[in-house]
Structure formats: structure tokens, C-alpha cells
Write a structure and sequence with these properties.
The protein is mainly alpha-helical and about 80 residues long. It has helices at about 5-15, 20-30, 35-55, 60-70. Helix 1 (about 5-15) crosses helix 2.
């Protein structure tokens, strides 16, 4: 695996969306390539920052309109009938 391949897979790696074989290949590459390991750490820090700042809940009216447009009950996700 080269750096370009690793960078293309980094989000899938972080989200657990890779096969075990691919996951190990990315991890092995990061162990052998400090710049890619640094890039991975930067992704982790970015995600942590976003998660810490994005905690506000959408207004009830907006949640209701979205649920209705998706055809699901807003409180439990069950289909509307």
C-alpha cells in the first residue's frame, strides 16, 4: 500500500468500513510511514473538535418536517401510517 491509497481509505478505516485485510494493511502502512500516521492523528483531532462543537439539537419544528418528509415518526423512527 502506498500513501495515496492509504489517504483514500483513511475515512473508511476510521469508520470501521474496511475488511480486516484492508484494515490491517492501512494500520501496517501507518506503522511504517510517520507522515501518514501524522495525517491519521490530524483526522482524529479534527473529528474530536467537530464532535465537541456540534452538540446543539435541531429545533423541534425542523425535526418534525424532516421526519415527515422521510415518512418516519419523529420520536421513535417508526414508519408513519
Amino acid at each position: 500500500m502506498d500513501c495515496d491509497q492509504m489517504l483514500n481509505l483513511i475515512n473508511h478505516y476510521m469508520d470501521g468500513g474496511l475488511s480486516q485485510w484492508r484494515h490491517r494493511a492501512v494500520a501496517r502502512h501507518m506503522n511504517d510511514c510517520p507522515p501518514c500516521a501524522d495525517h491519521h492523528n490530524a483526522h482524529i483531532q479534527f473529528r474530536q473538535q467537530v464532535a465537541s462543537k456540534c452538540f446543539e439539537e435541531a429545533p423541534a419544528g425542523l425535526r418534525l418536517r424532516i421526519s415527515e418528509s422521510l415518512g418516519v415518526h419523529p420520536s421513535d423512527g417508526s414508519p408513519l401510517r
